[in-house]
């Protein structure tokens, strides 16, 4: 709307020099396009097209659409085909499907709750957070982080799906090289999302049963630009009086 307003001002001040307004903006303003219809068509193409490029482009279009919170809130029964795509045989499709889930649920309470209401959403994502393709696993972890952040319902499904045992297993079996890779960074994001849920005592209780925090402390020297994220996480845990003696003074040791 702001872009359309600016165009109208330019057109009034400089007749003949403002160019043409963006057709997409006009369509949105006057209702020529139905975003939900476009989302449905994009997902249908992603599921039914016969070549990978067309399917990928259609799913990317869907992802762009659901970055808009209003569109994400209208996904409704389109969650079913989107969740179907996370089990696709093509890693590229799985990766973009997880990107779409992340785009739709990040900082969006309604969309998070809509995903939770599908019952299958959180468990389906969790099936892929440790798959052999590390790029897909990283995207699945990111999608799970976005879905869980500040969302008690998503956290409850995570916990009910043996999420803490699965996450603990993943963390304990990761090997960090000279620098944390994308999957390991997304593990940190997931732990941060879990801690963000307004149920601190259950989260801390689960953390106390695992070696997750102790392992993340060991990752710190290799965290690169994720050091600040780890520091923030450790400070938050310390502020909530979680096992203070074991936490390292990360700010002081960041040389």
UniProtKB/TrEMBL annotation:
Domain Nucleotide exchange factor Fes1: 1-75
Gene3D superfamilies recorded: Leucine-rich Repeat Variant
InterPro entries: ARM-like, ARM-type_fold, Hsp70_NEF-Inhibitors, Nucleotide_exch_fac_Fes1
Keyword S-adenosyl-L-methionine: no
Family statement drawn from the similarity comment of this UniProt entry: Belongs to the FES1 family.
UniProt xrefs under PANTHER family: HSP70-BINDING PROTEIN 1 (PTHR19316:SF18), PROTEIN FOLDING REGULATOR (PTHR19316)
Record's protein name: Hsp70 nucleotide exchange factor FES1
């Amino acid at each position: 709307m702001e872009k359309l307003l600016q165009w109208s001002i330019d057109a009034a001040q400089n007749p003949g020099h403002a160019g043409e307004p963006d057709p997409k903006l006009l369509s949105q303003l006057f209702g020529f396009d139905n975003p939900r219809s476009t989302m449905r068509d994009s997902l249908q193409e992603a599921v039914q097209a016969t070549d990978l490029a067309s399917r990928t482009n259609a799913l990317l279009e869907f992802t762009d659409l659901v970055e808009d919170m209003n569109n994400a809130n209208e996904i409704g029964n389109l969650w079913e085909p989107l969740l179907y795509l996370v089990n696709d045989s093509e890693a590229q499709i799985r990766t973009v499907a997880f990107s779409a889930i992340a785009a739709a649920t990040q900082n969006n309470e309604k969309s998070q709750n809509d995903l939770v209401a599908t019952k299958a959403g959180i468990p389906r994502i969790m099936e892929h957070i440790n798959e052999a393709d590390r790029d897909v696993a990283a995207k699945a972890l990111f999608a799970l982080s976005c879905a869980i952040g500040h969302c008690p319902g998503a956290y409850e499904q995570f916990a009910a799906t043996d999420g803490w045992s699965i996450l603990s297993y993943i963390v304990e079996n990761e090997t960090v090289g000279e620098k944390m890779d994308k999957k390991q960074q997304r593990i940190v994001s997931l732990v941060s999302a879990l801690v963000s849920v307004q149920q601190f005592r259950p989260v801390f209780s689960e953390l106390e049963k695992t070696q997750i925090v102790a392992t993340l402390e060991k990752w710190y020297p290799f965290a690169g630009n994720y050091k600040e994220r780890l520091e923030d996480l450790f400070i938050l845990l310390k502020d909530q009086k979680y096992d203070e003696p074991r936490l390292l003074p990360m700010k002081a040791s960041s040389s």
